Amino acid sequence: MTIKPYLNTELLRFTTAGSVDDGKSTLIGRLLYDSKAIYEDQLDAIKSYTEKKGDNSINLALLTDGLKAEREQGITIDVAYRHFSTPKRRFIIADTPGHIQYTRNMVTGASTANAAVILIDIRNGVTEQTIRHTFIASLLQIPHIIVCVNKMDLADYSEEAFEKVRQDFVAFASKMDIQDVQFIPISALYGDNIVKRSPRLEWYGGATLIYLLENLHIGSDQNHIDTRFPVQYVIRPQTENCNNFRGYAGRLAGGTLKPGDSVKILPSGMISRVKTLEMNGVPMEIAYAPQSLIVTLEDEIDISRGDMIVRENNIPQIENEIDLMACWLNEKPMNAGGRYIVKHTTREVRCLIKEVVYKIDINTLGRNVMDKEVKMNDIARIRIQTSAPLFIDAYRRNRNTGGLILIDERTNETVCAGLVI
Fold it and tell me: Distance (Å, rounded) from C-alpha 270 to C-alpha 382?
């Protein structure tokens, strides 16, 4: 029996981003409401809450703003994940905060996204947070960006106002590595151009938001060339029926695998062949990234968690000294020369921050080589040295093997998201 490849499952992950009060939660609430993805008890609870607040309309933002502090302040603090589906595709949404102190949560929500929906309030235009979130989306190599110019109802649905925002966005985005960007004028509050085309925006000839999300091509978003299988767990059942079984469980981080493939084990360099592939107890004829599976090999080789199975003639970089673009996520500034734990795929090693090469000026997108103090939400190029080699690819080539995090040894807090250059 053949397991259906992941490429055909029609699941799209997307994140929302933008400045405070640009309408991210309202937009997601509108998508859920118009796609009939809200349970009746949820809707009743929201109606009851808004009535207590003296509001006769339904506050759709409450569908994602689940924390008490979020509802009291009318803002998003934590990353809220929501699932909905249409006849064409399933979706997982990450609603991320707009406040600058929660930018680290935007990095978390965007790290696995196929697309980013960036909202801009038509009244405020492009802000510093718009630039920051777009730059992070560019760094994270999110393949598709949809810019929703929101609250068009407050600008009398003006084409001129929309065009000015579009031109301002293009002016700074042209300096970034963005593959695909599209613009939509919307009103999340009234549902204009969300699911149905708006008669009040007749001058706009493009698609609605839901149409774009349903039809984005995501088949090429994964790297299916470079085979990378980080071993997460070695399976040795030690039962009477399986006393000789040795399998390696993990998630395929790139490429494909099939029985008979010649593979190399890192870091030992040993060569073997794939004997079987298995998912949920079912044999597989071929596995695609990012499927989770069990691999068995024809030879008895000493393999443990953190090792990586790759193609014999296609191996990643094996490095102790690594250059990263770093997004600092912790309130405590980076300790240049300090020691941290690196977590990369299933491998954990210690590292030393050797150098801060430069910081990014978020307003000009220029490089500041004089200021070497990296604080929360700063983006900088750094160089680290690890206690043991990591098996890495450039982030632009493979997001799974090109990304890592730094962890504070004393507090066990995740302090940095790093992207291999």
Answer: 33
Residue 214: phi and psi, rounded to 5, are -70, -25
The CATH class of 228-311 is mainly beta
Mean pLDDT of 364-370: 90
pTM of full prediction above 0.90:
no
Q: How far apart, in whole angstroms, are the C-alpha atoms of residue 382 and residue 418?
A: 9
- Report in angstroms the alpha-carbon separations of 18 from 26, 199, 257, 317: 12, 26, 39, 36
Sequence ranges of the domains in the chain: 6-215, 228-311, 317-420
- Report the SS3 class of residue 181: strand
The single-letter code of the amino acid at 204 is: Y
Residue 53 pLDDT level (bands cut at 50, 70, 90): low
User: What DSSP assignment string belongs to 269-329?
Assistant: --EEEEEEEEETTEE-S-EETT-EEEEEESS-----TT-EEEETTB--EEEEEEEEEEEE-
Tokens representing 272 are 């073997």
- For residue 283, whether the previous peptide bond is cis, meaning omega lies within 30 degrees of 0, is no
- What CATH topology corresponds to 6-215? Rossmann fold (3.40.50)
